[in-house]
């Protein structure tokens, strides 16, 4: 076989391995808004997250798997000459399942124990993405002259997927691993 033919075949093989099946339909999580409001001396978090699941996550869900969403909330005190101090760290957890017999999407909010059923995936994801009045911290625990920052991000937690699906996500770096960027903003006591 000619050297040029071998080189061309090697390049084609590398390209086919680099892009399996063409462009991948990756998921993404976008934090659209987030703010804290003070009411009755308690700061509450409100916000909206748009969840877009990729092909792998959709297949896992429709194949009977449970998707575990985690909303991470962190409050830090900003300091000049020392590392920032973590004041509070909260996690809101949701489980999403598809019930094939009824054709419904079931959402379980692990923190509150609340269960809800939705007729469409879009409605279930919008529900999970709505953050309403999540208590963060009592204002009396913050210094009036302190500088604070709130941070929020959303994660599809593959550690809680069934073992077979978790291994797929680890080995193929599939779109079962979806993490939003941190959304940060100052909090004034």
List keywords for this structure.
single chain, 189 residues, 44% strand, globular
Structure description:
It is globular and about 60 Å long. The N and C termini lie far apart (about 75 Å). Strand 1 and strand 2 form a beta hairpin. Residues about 5-25 and about 170-175 have low confidence and may be disordered. It has helices spanning about 5-20, 55-60, 120-130, 165-170, and strands at about 30-40, 40-50, 65-80, 85-100, 105-110, 115-120, 130-140, 145-155, 185. The longest helix is centred in the first third of the chain and has 16 residues, at about 5-20. It has a 6-stranded antiparallel beta sheet. A 3-stranded antiparallel beta sheet has the order 1-2-7. By secondary structure, it is α+β, with helices and mostly antiparallel strands. About 20% of the residues lie in helices and about 45% in strands. It has one domain. The protein has 4 helices and 9 strands; from the N terminus they run H-E-E-H-E-E-E-E-H-E-E-H-E.
The computed structural class is: alpha+beta
Strand content: 35-45%
How many structural domains in the coordinates? Answer: 1
Helicity, as a percent range: 10-25%
Shape: globular
Strand order of the largest sheet: 6-5-4-3-8-9
Total strands: the figure is 9
Q: What is the element string, with H for helices and E for strands?
A: HEEHEEEEHEEHE
Mean pLDDT, to the nearest integer, reads 83
Largest pleated sheet: 6 strands, antiparallel
Flag low-confidence runs: 7-23, 169-174
Distance between the termini: 74 Å
Number of helices: 4
Give the radius of gyration. 21 Å
